[in-house]
Amino acid sequence: MTFRAPLAAPARVLARSLGRRARLRWAHQLLGGALLMPYFLLLTSLLPLVLPAASDPLSDLGTQFVAYGLSLPLVAVTGLLFPLVRTLETYAAQSLCAVPATALARGPAGSWAARRRTAGWFALHLGTGALVSGMSLAVPPMATVLLLVPFVPAPRAPRWWEPWTSLLAGPWLWTAPLIGAALLAGTVTAAYGAGALCARWAPVLLGPTPADRLAAAEERAAVLAARNRLARELHDSVGHALSAVTLQAGAARRVLDTDPDFAREALHAIEETAREAVAELDSVLGVLREEHTDGDGHTGSGGEAGPSGGSPRPATGGRRPAPVLGDGLGGLLQRVRTAGVPVERTGADDGVLRALPPHTAREGYRITQEGLSNVLRHAPGQRAHVHLSVDARELRVTVTNAPSATPPYGTRAPAPAGAGQAAGGGGRGLRGIAERAVLLGGSAEAGPYEGGWRLTARLPLGGDEGSGAGDGTTARGTGP
Which of 13, 108, 210, 416 is positioned for an S-S bond with 83, CB 3.0–4.6 A? Predict the structure, then answer.
């Protein structure tokens, strides 16, 4: 034990200095030295033209250090002028310096602050890399000769030692191996220290700037907005269709033997509802595909505004436009009636609704659809009333259902006996309604009303497009 303890610490230091991480960082330093070489050769060829004393730069050590020092400003200018330098250096630092990817910025340096940081890093990497590379090339042969001098006569010739022949003569000859080992240890230490220095400064100089963090946050918000929009579209379109189909199928099953005509009508309604659901699902999936393939950053939508601000234009690729109030409300109410919910409509007629801005008409349809879907899920068979009013500033959508023995459509509850269990629920619909209204600059609220339930949404006619806008905003509409 007394002999092992003094050797344990040097062994750990040696293992750390020559371990896999240290070797990778050494390779990173050698890469920096290789990248500095073009600048160094350019200046060594130009220095004799400026400094007559530097006539032989390849053999004059002082001239070489001058060329090395002058090359670093050129390296910094390269990092300042070329944004892609940060991308290349980031991947090199991540792979060879063992710097976590989360601490580094991925893309090119966009702002001048990021470019200045990149310039500083590039100069640090290439500057330390050139010194470590020079030591790695020059020291091992010299150290090998020093290790062999006391034992091999050939290296003792004067041509090997000038001007140090007299220093290692006589009894001092046996110090040559110690000097050689010290040179090797110094090279390893220098490489280890330079690698640790670069690993320490890489997150500072190659890490994201405040502008990079803001761009990343905006990108994450855009992704979340797209996911929320698609979730709303799927919930409102497919969820409504499944609720209606469930009730229609239950009604057809119960009267199949006693009222074949009604069962036949219900099956026909199921077929039409399923066809509408498949078409709307294809429209939503088409939006998802366009978001991944549109190269200019614009996302497609199933019912965008036409050039004149009138009816929605058809989607590309033959995909049907999203339904709107003026053209789709009649079919929606008919499907709800077929599912067993008597629904009455009052207020603005189809002509007035067709004159609405496309985004307002689209979001108004979805809000009406979700309100009636909640009636189907949680108050099946109860009378519903849809009132649409339009003035110079806003569209107001009100969906009311009559008093029911079942809980209102903001909560999950089984349907009355014989009504069949409807699909959906869970409160996502009211949150989606509030988000749609807020994105247009309006509001939505829902709650008990005279023993039943009422949903009211106000949509400004000049609001931003809800389907295409980012919806990271928290909805302010009130739910139950």
Answer: 108
